[in-house]
Amino acid sequence: MVPPEVPRTLTVSRAAVDPAAEREYLQLLGELARLSETRGRRLWVFRAAGSPGRFLECSESRSPEEHRAAGPLDADEARLEQRVRELAVYDDGAGELWEEVRV
Questions:
Q1: To 5 degrees, how large is the angle CA 44–CA 26–CA 97?
Q2: CB distance 59 to 14 below 8 Å
Q3: For residues 80 and 28, what is the distance between their CA atoms, to the nearest angstrom?
Q4: Residue 1: is its pLDDT beyond 90?
Q5: SS3 98
């Protein structure tokens, strides 16, 4: 569990993927999600209803330094991230980090 004084960090990225590459894209993100969990990161993927090839990737970490967009990646994570970025086109602001606000 994350201590209350440490805000979680999130990125929400819109991605467009050629429908012919969706299967590989989702498989890669599944592998990346499993590897990320060992580092205390979470990755969720949502598909846009009625818009083939449109996805929303939500990545969460315990801190900005540990986030998938900023933190260190091992060789497997780097390989997966590179291939995902070859398959997907991301909207502007895809790597923007958002910090949790406690209310």
A1: 40
A2: no
A3: 6
A4: no
A5: strand
